[in-house]
Amino acid sequence: MDVLDAVTASVVFRLSVALGVGALIGLERERSGSAGFFAGSRTFPLVALLGGLLNGFFPELLPVGFAALAVIVGVAYAGKVAFEDDIGSTTAVAALLVFVYGAMATGSENGTVLAVVLGIFTTSVLAAKPWMHSFAEGIDDRELTDILKFLLVAPAVFLLVPNRELDALYGLNPRFVWLMVVLVSGISLGAYLLRKYLGAERGIALSGVLGGMASSTATSVSLSGRARREESLMGLYAFAISLASMAMFPRVLIEVAVVSPSILIDVAVPVGAMTVVGTVLAFVVLRGRDKEAIQIQASNPFRIRTAVVFGVIFAVVLVVSREGARAFGESGVYATAFVSGLADADAIAISLSRLAESGEIPVGTATLGVVIGVVSNTLVKFGIAAVVGGRELGKKVGFVLVTTSAVGIAVAVVV
């Protein structure tokens, strides 16, 4: 009896999910005034329920049900075109998708989760109609060409380069390096679009934070290259690069918390101090910018040259990091932390946290090692800004990052 109750509860839950997804999309269609002849806040949940019931209890009739719905949708669409002179097919397609989502919801646990995710995504796309139309109208031929170039070149090279370590490249994996190149290009394009449609001040700052959460090094390279080409926006780019570096610190704390909760507080004190000081100094740099600079038009967002430069820098640092770790050995915690941090602060943070959790190294040693790795990685951003972005950008970014690094080391040593 308990098993039967559990099965019944599972079926009811999945059908409820199907209804919920249908209702969500139906409400959006009703609110937007796009419900048309047949599909609104009542019809969409029923369509989702139909798909869920057929797949859950009569799976052999699922194709028949979908075909019948397609006919009904086709007739309704034809009537809409004939009587309203409106050829928009979004609601018709959404109705067919809702049927599929309903069927997915009763198909399996993964299907239920995916139905919810896709339902939310579909609703978001439908609700974003005004913004998407404005976005499409604002893109000129040159910008469209740049975006298509990015979408074509990135996957093409990714498929062509080998996915293995090559002795000729000192053990580097070309596909992994190219992934970093693609990331730089994507950040550059994303920063451009954010700036274009949110305004320079909000767009560049947001791209710094979001890019820093993914890869602060890649973001620094991308934004430094743009800063050299748009000198009047130097202060704004310095602010964004500084924020990208600050975004790395919370990520490191999350990794430490997962691997070794016992040393989290020890690490959080110096890293937290770095976050606060760095953020404050970044806003100091922002206050000194030329406010009229935000009126300047943006340039070509796709810069393959800047991306390739990053690929070379990243590859060299990766090789130096690996060879340095081998030379110093595991006993040279601090030296290894500094060298490893040049390429990646996450790896050294996780490694030292694990060693401290297992008792192989003291907590204090692990804490200072993590901070050294973070500081090393932070100083790399300063170097990137100075080399790629120029002397003036280097001064502004260095003011933030060098001061932040000194605070981190000082606090870690004292604690």
UniProtKB/TrEMBL annotation:
* Domain annotation MgtC/SapB/SrpB/YhiD N-terminal: ranges: 15-134
Membrane keyword on record: yes
In this chain the DUF4010 domain maps to: 182-389
Mind listing the UniProt keywords for this protein, alphabetically? Membrane, Transmembrane, Transmembrane helix
Q: Which InterPro entries match?
A: DUF4010, MgtC_SapB_SrpB_YhiD_N
Stored Pfam families: DUF4010 (PF13194), MgtC (PF02308)
Transmembrane annotation, as ranges: 6-27, 39-58, 64-83, 90-107, 144-161, 176-194, 203-223, 235-254, 263-284, 304-321, 368-390, 397-414
Q: What is this protein called?
A: MgtC/SapB family protein
